[in-house]
Amino acid sequence: MDKFWKFASIDRIEDFMFNPSLERFYKFKIDGTVRENIQNSLDARNYAVDKPVVVTINLDEIHVNELPGINEILERIPFLKGQNEYTKETIENMKKVILENKINVISFEDENTKGLKYTDDREDTWKAYAYKKGVHNIDPDIEIENNRGGSHGVGKIASNAASELFLIYFSNCDGDGNKHIGGTIQLIEHEFKEKYHRSTGYFVDDFEKEIPFENNYRGIFQKDTRGLKLIIPFYKKDFGDEFEIIKSICDSFFLAIVEKKLVVKINAIIIDHESIESFIENDSYYPKNLGPRSTEMTPLYYNTFTNEEKKELEILDKNRRKYHFDLYFKYDESITKGRVAIIRSIGMKIEDFKISSAATKPFNAVLIPKNSDCDKFLKSLENESHTEISWKHFKVKSHQENAKYFINNLDKAVKKKIDDCIKQNNETEGQIRVDDIIYEVENSFREILNEKNSIMSVGNSTIIKRKPEKRKKSENKLGKSGTPAVTKQRKPKTINENGDREKDELYSVTPHLIRRALTYNREILEIDMSSSDEIKSGRRVDLSLKVVDGMGLEYGDEFFMEDNYSTVYEQPSGETKIIKDNKIKDILVQNNRIKIILGLKENFNRSLKFRYYLEV
Fold first, then answer.
1. 532: enclosing H helix or E strand
2. CB 88 within 8 A of CB 16
3. What is the full DSSP assignment across 374-392?
4. Do the Cβ atoms of 269 and 294 come closer than 8 Å?
5. Which of 122, 290, 310, 502 has a CB 3.0–4.6 Å from the CB of 294, allowing a cystine?
6. What is the pLDDT of residues 500-516, one digit of tens each?
7. Residue 594 has pLDDT above 80, yes or no
8. Cα dihedral 354, 358, 361, 364 in deg (nearest 10)
């Protein structure tokens, strides 16, 4: 039996997949790892010590033999067998990684926290962190518990996702000076030494009795002060370096740092309430004069929070319960993208919240729960990765409906604030004389009317005789409304990464040829191409679109298909189409028609109007 790493035995292999949470957290890269670990540290704050939580992050390189019990893992990896492309590729990568002698490692160590406690009573917090999935330890202090981060109990795996082997260690020192070390690795169910084993392995002295190892290790595994230290070996190179980590800290925790709840040290750099402005104002991290597609909102949030007067915002849920927030709101015509930073009381930003029909309005806002009850409810709305408020994770229908109602009311309340500010900033001062304007318009109208028609008098009456208009030859090829079915646009010829020529003919589609039907969770889109000589049946096209406002102005950088459509099916074939570069690729024109069915994500705004483009 292995001395260090323990895998539970099973009768047969049933699951050939890696834990799906690994893939979900992988897409967040270093943001997910930083967010999860600093949130855990803020949750574990020791309020008996009147000091901010200090998190020290180190990026280093060590010899693989320095990892406790690593040989037991290295000999197990070659026995993993994948049954699909993803698992096969992942396992092959693992087999390459274990041949390296020097490996990357990142660690997160906190201070002024409670740390984990290993006991045999209800105060034990070690077991929930070290050996259990989907378990969140409840703090006995209700107010502290309400203010803590999300409680799905799966976020711990975010750190495993940052390792090429999905491997982590954690060292702990409690309030009595007891030191322990543990670890987990996420593999797949596998056969090893003529036995079948579960996917998760634990670095533990006695797995049955859940007894951890005492920590006598030195170097990177050493933890002598109260708190927790997490070590991630085989750190993925594409997760980011020091620069990306600093940006992630500022983006997610600028409020906690400003309010002196958090200090972060990364290598020789310190980010605290005095230095954070120097990072946010640094062009290297947050370039000035960014275009409308920029997602860099942190400088705006920081300036709004530090410079704007605090207001109170009251939001009702479906049960008529009131929740109170502090709102910091800024209206500025120079702002090109309006967002609301929804921030938990611990100082962690959850989401850049979009207000319906206000994505391009000139505002910026920061929203913070005013009390622990409000914070508790907001926490319940967080998804497992703490990146958005949502209703989807609720299993009880009444809870889903209440969450939807609250989020909708939040949207409406901020929208009203925006509309009030727009009205206030665009009020007309005094009265405007319009008699000259009316005179000019009336005369212009008469001139146009005389050009197109002749005026005749019959008795005491006047009638207008319309002059016949000559039909242009090209009108024989027009659509039903007298406008071309498609209008060719300019598009430069480009070569893709494979050396093939991209589609270089771009056409805008006449609106009256488009039919849209929206249901609860899907949209049916049909484009009639029968009046088009340019695009006929048998051609394959790429479909793109732009948002159009009430004045007919286009906004090409405000709608991203991958964020709004979950699936795309071509009709009548039923073939699945991919979305790439904000286009639906290779749609076949059949029977002079394009017809697709779009699966709608929850955040899809049904009130938006679009202009459609086809690339051939």
1. none
2. no
3. HHHHHHHHB-TTSS-B-ST
4. no
5. 290
6. 445 568 888 888 889 88
7. yes
8. -30
Q: Indicate whether this model's pTM tops 0.70.
A: no
DSSP per-residue codes, 554-603: EETTS--HHHHEEEEEETTT--B--EETTEEEEEEPBTTEEEEEEEEPTT
267-285: pLDDT as tens digits: 889 999 999 999 999 999 9
Q: From 221, 185, 258, select the one nearest 66 (Cα to Cα).
A: 221
Separation CA 510–CA 528 (nearest Å): 10
Contacts of 95 (CB under 8 A, 6+ apart): 77, 78
Token pair for 395: 């299993």
Tally: H helices and E strands in the chain = 14, 29
3 state SS of 213: strand
Q: How far apart are CA 503 and CA 615, in angstroms?
A: 6
Residue 239 identity (one-letter amino acid): F
Backbone φ and ψ of 441, nearest 5°: -65, -40
CB neighbour class for 152 (10 Å; exposed up to 12, middle 13-18, buried from 19): middle
For 85-139, how does the pLDDT look when each residue is reduced to its tens digit (9 = 90+)?
989 999 999 999 999 999 999 999 999 999 998 887 666 788 888 887 654 444 4
How many C-beta atoms lie closer than 10 Å to residue 241's C-beta?
10
Report the distance separating Cα 160 and Cα 21, nearest Å.
Answer: 10
Through-space distance between the first and last CA atoms of the chain, rounded to whole angstroms: 63
Q: Count Cα atoms within 13 angstroms, Cβ side, for 132.
A: 13
Residues 306, 303: Cα–Cα separation, whole Å: 5
Contacts of residue 88, defined as CB under 8 A and 6 or more positions apart, other chains included, come to 82
Q: Residue 48 is encoded by which pair of tokens?
A: 């008996």
DSSP string, 37-79: HHHHHHHTB-TTS-S-EEEEEEEEEEEGGGSTTHHHHHTTGGG
Q: Are 585 and 579 in contact (CB under 8 A)?
A: yes
Note the pLDDT of residue 76.
Answer: 95
